[in-house]
Each structure stands twice: as structure tokens, then as C-alpha cells.
Amino acid sequence: MRRCLSRLLLSIALLAIGSIHGAQADTPPAVTPDELIAARKASMEAQSSRLAAIMQAIVINADIRPFAATGEAIATWGRNLLDLFPAGTEVGNDTQARPAVWSDRAGFGMAAARLTQAAQSLANAAVGGDQAEFIKAYRGTMLACAACHVIYRSGRN
């Protein structure tokens, strides 16, 4: 099920990229490493946007319950994170992924699992409406992101 979902998400991202490049609806887009890297970067930016929205909600002391879905989305993304880094996407399109993503697959998988767990805690705290727990879970999610970036991402962290 997990593998099917991740393939579906990757297919959707690739179709979106194909439509940007003018591909016909009945013609599958050409999948190149550069396109996969572009899709990966776009998904990373989407997670950053989600986390920024959560930060804004925390700052203004907004109702956190609507962010349960956001936490779930980040957790789902974390479960599928390894699939965004297939073999053949180690270089190109100004990737910031370090070689350790592929050479230390187990470590990268554990980092993704920590993110998934932290994001699930974020979702659970949002459902309960517990602001203090939500802030704690947000910090945990941000720390999981930062810890992964230190090891597996070059450039700005």
C-alpha cells in the first residue's frame, strides 16, 4: 500500500511536470533525472510552506485543530521520502542531496522515520487542541528536518 501511494504521488508530480513542459494528456511525460530532482525540490518546498504556516499559527495563537491534516500530510510525505531519491538522481539539476542519501540508505531511512513520527505527533496534538503539546511537536518536527539536512543535504540548511 505504501509503495503504491508513493508511486501514485510520484506519478502525479511527474504528470504536473509534464504539463508544465507541454506534454499531451495521452502521452506520458519523459522522466529524466532532472525532472525527478525538480519534483523532489518542489515537494521539499511544499513541506517548508506547510511548516511556515504552522509557525504563523503558533505565533498568533490561532486554533491549531485545522493543522491536524497538515501534520498527517507531512507524516505521509516522510513515509515516502526515500522514494523521492531513486538511483540515478544523485547528480543534476543543482541537487543539494549529498551522496550519503544513497550510500547510507538505512540512516536516511531512519531520519525519514523520525520526521514521520514527529509529524504524526504534530497531527495528534492538533487534533487534541493542546497548544503546548503542539508547539513541542512542531519543534520536534523542525529538529527532525534540520538533523536530516545536516547529514544528507549540502548547501543551505
Which terms summarize this structure?
Four Helix Bundle (Hemerythrin (Met), subunit A), disordered N terminus, 6 helices, 157 residues, mainly alpha
Describe the protein's architecture and organization.
- By secondary structure, this protein is mainly alpha-helical.
- The protein has one domain (33-152): Up-down Bundle (Four Helix Bundle (Hemerythrin (Met), subunit A)), CATH 1.20.120.10.
- Helices cover 69% and strands 0% of the residues.
- The chain has helices at residues 2-20, 33-59, 68-79, 100-103, 105-128, 131-152.
- Helix 1 (2-20) crosses helix 2, helix 2 packs antiparallel against helix 6 and helix 5 runs antiparallel to helix 6 (131-152).
- The longest helix has 27 residues, at 33-59.
- The radius of gyration is 16 Å and the shape is elongated.
